[in-house]
Amino acid sequence: TTTDTVAPVISAVTSSGITAAAASVLWNTDENADSTAWYSTTTPVAIGGGALTTTNASLVSAHSLGLTGLTASTTYYFLVVSKDGNGNTATSSESSFTTLGL
Fold it and tell me: Are 71 and 99 in contact (CB under 8 A)?
């Protein structure tokens, strides 16, 4: 048997459903993988170093994570990470969105 050593390919990273206090982050992968989003009000987003994170361990190819407890009228920077069942990990480039005002 051949072990999968290829990381998932992340595509179509976007944000939607943006309100004053919440937003959703969506993306696709070319194989089933878990979902993690790191987000911060500063750039670059520091994975594991002060950035906030949310995760879904389910292995899927269409990813959606909700970010809550956000501050109104604030720009958030985010990147997404997906790891397949064999532990191969891919990280997106950074994106951003601005929450709505109150």
Answer: yes
Using only C-alpha atoms, the chain has a radius of gyration, in whole angstroms, of 14
CB 15 within 8 A of CB 25: yes
Which of 93, 92, 96 is closest to 8 using CA atoms? 92
Question: Could you say which DSSP state residue 25 is in?
Answer: E
The residue among 2, 53, 4, 62 whose CA lies nearest residue 30 is 62
C-alpha to C-alpha distance for 36 and 39, rounded to whole angstroms: 10
pTM here is: 0.94
Q: Which two tokens stand for residue 22?
A: 């919440």
* pLDDT average, residue stretch 47-65: 95
Torsional class of 12: left (φ above 0), alpha (ψ -120 to 50), beta (otherwise) = left
Give the integer Cα–Cα distance in Å for 40 and 34. Answer: 20
